[in-house]
From TrEMBL:
It comes from Thermanaeromonas toyohensis ToBE. Residues 253-483 form the Sigma-54 factor interaction domain. SUPFAM superfamilies: Homeodomain-like, P-loop containing nucleoside triphosphate hydrolases, PYP-like sensor domain (PAS domain). GO terms for molecular function: ATP binding; sequence-specific DNA binding. One of its GO terms (biological process) is regulation of DNA-templated transcription. It comes from the Bacteria. This is PAS domain S-box-containing protein. Keywords: ATP-binding, DNA-binding, Nucleotide-binding, Transcription, Transcription regulation.
Length: 561
């Protein structure tokens, strides 16, 4: 075991920032190697020397006099500007830590932005995806009587009690309220989610303005412009909704195999109804994709789709997450309480992913929601009624879990009103090519390449491989290949695949699969011969449905025979 001191010294060597400790006489007592690199004196032992000898431009004397931190000063170093901050240690009687970093031009910009946002006559607050404040400008903080530094890091509802940002980041829907009443003020509030390019929610932003400010003369023009923009936005929103409604949600699910076509047809029919749906399938087969498509194709499409991963949330937090809590329900409960996912999904769909991992203790509570569509928040007395549709998914064998006593039979029946099995990719190799085509299109845009497809050898390897991670694994393998393609490459070749990907079929452990395929082909040929080419008869001889025979003929390219 390394000693704590050694460990600390080691960690210090890993930092990108330079650190120097000095005592009240300005003598260096400790440092990390990066500090010397930034100061241009690498490799020296400067312990015991005066700071001013190695760093003449230091402003330590000021700090030793005022005993106040001095943050973000700029000095010229050997390799460009250095940002230097001084932090006197609380009980250090003048001992000070100095943090050095190479000045990044981003710092200048970030400072300009920060100053701009701070001075803007508009309240601004930004939260992360958990609804915690990461930024609040001076104007906004003063509107609600807080100091910016004390507000950052707190749940937004604690600082801006009127904010709906928590719901905005959970549901992804904006919130506009031109008439918020707060401590005698009338505020205008606009809150929107911040999303990345793929639509994932990163956080949210709140804009607050007192109504009288909007009506002041200098704002009238601004307000007028704002109204025009807002109307234009509404127009675009309508247009987007129109486009989205006309774009079938099933388009995203690629595949030409009879299994996937049949499944899409069935799911489209199920979407029209209200029954709960259970999606079964191995990891990465597209359960999430199907759940979203069912919601999009249902009459609930304009209401929220809320996903909960039952395996990812610790058991003791799951109840609060699902059902919410009232103020004071437990220590640490947020002021004003918090709505649960079921409440937020009212009118929409709740997608319970990894339902096989739902703790036994939660199962009766979920059962009650399924039976009565009602529940109480933790610590609450009021019964809340919700209108939600449940789609659940798992890659576990629920029936076995029921037998083992880990899953309640009554809950299973309630969830599995309609069960859809999504077959693993290895059972539908003909889907590989169309899925690859759409993924290649996507990655061509992302990586700015013009790949046209798979080489015949890669196609063969893909069709033989067992894909334990299904479509997700296929996606990862292709993305890996894109990282190794040259701009002039038009086809994905075996050498672009990950080194762990089996490069030869026989060495990949697929002998059994190949043997079965060969035996199948033999049997089909014999049956066709015996049936004198009559496929109905051949299917009867083989003991399979004629449609099954047609599929196999296509798969093995035996149609001409
Ligand atoms: N038929 C398909 N066509 C196109 N993309 C697909 C298809 N099936 C799955 N995908 C893609 O594969 C990835 C994994 O799919 P998804 O997350 O829906 O699987 P899952 O079954 O929910 O996985 P898990 O059980 O691990 O949560 C996603 O990026 C999804 O878009």
């Amino acid at each position: 075991m390394p000693s704590l001191d050694n460990l600390v010294t080691y960690i210090l060597t890993l930092l990108n920032h330079g650190l120097i400790w000095v005592n009240k006489s300005g003598i260096i007592t400790e440092f990390n190697p990066q500090a010397l690199v930034i100061l241009g004196v690498p490799g020296q032992d400067v312990r015991g020397r005066k700071l001013t000898e190695v760093f003449p431009a230091s402003r330590l004397s000021e700090v030793l006099t005022t005993r106040q931190p001095l943050v973000g000063t700029k000095v010229q170093g050997i390799k460009g500007a250095i940002r230097v901050s001084y932090f006197p240690l609380p009980e250090g009687e003048g001992n000070t830590v100095i943090v050095l970093e190479q000045w990044d031009t981003g710092h200048d910009l970030a400072e300009i932005y920060e100053a701009l946002l701070a001075e803007l006559p508009l309240g601004l607050a930004v939260v992360d995806k958990e609804g915690k404040l990461v930024f609040i400008n001076k104007y906004c903080a003063s509107l609600v009587g807080w100091r910016e530094e004390s507000a950052v890091g707190l749940p937004v509802a604690q600082v801006l009690p009127f904010s709906r940002l928590f719901e905005v980041v959970t549901t992804g829907r904006s919130y506009l309220n031109p008439e918020v009443q707060f401590k005698g003020q009338r505020l205008c509030l606009a809150e929107i989610p911040l999303k990345n390019k793929s639509g994932e929610i990163l956080g949210g932003i709140s804009r607050v303005l007192p109504q009288e400010a909007i009506l002041q003369d200098n704002f009238k023009d601004f307000y007028h412009q704002f109204k025009i923009m807002e109307n234009r936005l509404l127009l675009y929103k309508d247009e987007l909704e129109f486009l989205q409604e006309n774009l079938s949600p099933w388009v995203a699910i690629q595949g030409i195999s009879p299994q996937i076509k049949e499944l899409k047809k069935l799911a489209a029919r199920v979407a029209q109804g209200e029954a709960n749906v259970l999606l079964l399938g191995e990891s990465g087969t597209g359960k999430d994709l199907f759940a979203r498509a069912i919601h999009q194709a249902s009459r609930r499409r304009k209401e929220p789709f809320i996903k909960i991963n039952c395996a990812a949330i610790p058991e003791n937090l799951l109840e609060a997450e699902l059902f919410g809590y009232e103020e004071g329900a437990f220590t640490g409960a947020a002021r004003g309480g918090k709505p649960g996912k079921f409440e937020l999904a009212d009118g929409g769909t709740v997608f319970l992913d990894e339902i096989g991992d739902l703790p036994l203790s939660m199962q009766p509570k979920l059962l009650r929601v399924l039976q009565e569509r009602s529940f109480e928040r933790i610590g609450g007395r009021k019964t809340l009624n919700v209108d939600v549709r449940i789609i659940a998914a798992t890659n576990k064998d629920l029936v076995s879990l029921v037998k083992e006593g880990k899953f309640r039979l009554d809950l299973y029946y309630r969830l599995a009103v309609i069960t859809l099995h999504i077959p693993p990719l290895r059972e539908r190799p003909m889907d590989i090519e169309p899925i690859c085509r759409s993924l290649i299109q996507k990655f061509n845009i992302k990586y700015m390449l013009e790949v046209q497809g798979l080489s015949p050898k890669v196609k063969e390897l893909f069709e033989e491989y067992s894909w334990p991670g299904n479509v997700r694994e296929l996606e990862n393998v292709l993305e890996y290949a894109f990282n190794f393609l040259d701009p002039e490459d038009k086809l994905i070749l075996p050498e672009h695949l990950p080194p762990t990907f089996p490069q030869s079929i026989s060495s990949g452990g697929f002998e059994l699969k190949k043997a079965v395929a060969l035996a199948e082909q033999e049997a089909i040929k014999k049956a066709l011969l015996a049936a004198k080419g009559n496929k109905q008869e051949a299917a009867r001889l083989l003991g399979i449905h004629p449609s099954g025979l047609y599929q196999k003929l296509k798969k093995y390219n035996l149609n001409e025979g």
